């Protein structure tokens, strides 16, 4: 948790101070993506310079029609929109306490998170339930629930929470800002909550993105050996209930997985994938980022998903397509090859 006033953020980041001092004492206690931000959250919008108001573009996953309903405590927007702001207020964003035009909203958000979250966030002290079993070689700095089992050489960092009945078998590492539900099983070598593989360009340099939103995992999930679930940037990576992952599965930053997901060995999803309930990936399936995998989709082994998939269908091949189409294509190619 952290708490900081708007005035401190603006002053520390050398941003323009409003003449109306009445808005400066506003308390900010969180951060989030634009589509999930609350009244006391910090967020950002990269804008779209193609239109006069910029509201026709993609806003981090929020459609133009939904943009007017955005709520935030502090919102970084491109400097292009300064003409629409008066002392941090804008008619375009009536539910935002303070609109702050900057040269690069993405970089401003990263700067804010490094200064006010990474360096100042205070975590709950270590707390281990009396009925929990913790191996002598384990390091536990977070919270461990009733009847949980923490095996040899596991690390539960400060700011992590392990739910009741959950088992970390051996050499499992759980990073800060990770919340794991009840009755989950993590086999040897699983890592939950490391920084995602994210970079951005600023002033000609490649800069590393901090991923400080952590991971949220539901109940009754299982993770086989050496799986990795990366932390989100401004919103957590989310996995629902009753999800099961085979060995060497990768779930990248900002992904949102529903309930009853099955992913076989060596499959993975890139950043910001939305996977609806009841999806099944066979072995070796890989998905590009920023896609939606519809409810009940099944993807055959070794397929490569390059675009969003419609609910209830079975897909195969690279690029992945409906399996009947893929089968006919394979037969035709073989026939052509024999000519």
In short:
It comes from Fibrobacter succinogenes (strain ATCC 19169 / S85). It contains four helices and 39 strands.
Portion of residues in beta strands equals 25-35%
* CATH homologous superfamily (4th level) name of the largest domain: Hexapeptide repeat proteins
Question: What is the class of the largest domain in the CATH system?
Answer: Mainly Beta
State the end-to-end distance: 68 Å
The side-by-side strand order for the widest beta sheet comes to 10-13-16-19-24-27-30-33-36-38-39
Summed over residues and divided by their number, the pLDDT gives a mean of 92
Can you walk through the features of this model?
Keywords: Acyltransferase, Lipid A biosynthesis, Lipid biosynthesis, Lipid metabolism, Transferase. It comes from Fibrobacter succinogenes (strain ATCC 19169 / S85). This is UDP-3-O-(3-hydroxymyristoyl)-like protein. The protein has 2 domains: 4-118, 3-Layer(aba) Sandwich (Udp-n-acetylmuramoylalanyl-d-glutamate--2,6- Diaminopimelate Ligase, Chain: A, domain 1); 127-327, Hexapeptide repeat proteins (UDP N-Acetylglucosamine Acyltransferase, domain 1). It is flat, with a radius of gyration of 22 Å. It has 4 helices and 39 strands. Helix 2 (64-67) links the parallel strand 4 (41-44) and strand 5 (72-78). With 339 residues, the chain is α/β, with parallel strands linked by helices. The strands form 7 sheets. An 11-stranded mixed beta sheet has the order 10-13-16-19-24-27-30-33-36-38-39, with helices on one face. Strands 9-12-15-18-23-26-29-32-35 form a 9-stranded parallel beta sheet, with no helix packed on it. The model is unreliable at 49-64 (pLDDT under 50).
